[in-house]
Amino acid sequence: MQYTEKVMDHFQHPRNMGQIENPSGVGEVGNAVCGDIMRIYLTVENNVITDIKFQTYGCGAAVATTSQLTEMVKGKTLEEALKITNADVAKELGGLPPVKLHCSNLAADALKVAIENYQQNLKQEKESVKNAESR
Ligand code: FES
What separation in angstroms does the CA of 61 have from each of 55, 67, 83, 121? Predict the structure, then answer.
């Protein structure tokens, strides 16, 4: 299987791998095709992703695509981050072998779940502030 140099670089030196203590949101997804798992942690300030980290049991292509995605979304607003597709990430990496395209789904899917988790946390926070104020 032929990987581009950029894919190999991200696989061998993944950016933003690890965990965030007290994240604003966390997203975990499994890949139905291979059974691998991806978890993404976010720090969000004023609607902007200021930090992002990931942990995975995925293959090299999953590591490379998630590493690339984390670099692309850091500093972006949530709306901008949600617009980045698997195809954008694969393109940025110079392409992925077709048999490995499903692996890139893990990154975008986990990011989406992490953003939803953040939005839920925010809503709960607002509600508890409101409840505290009305007491
Ligand atoms: S084979 Fe499972 S993520 Fe690539």
Answer: 14, 10, 21, 31
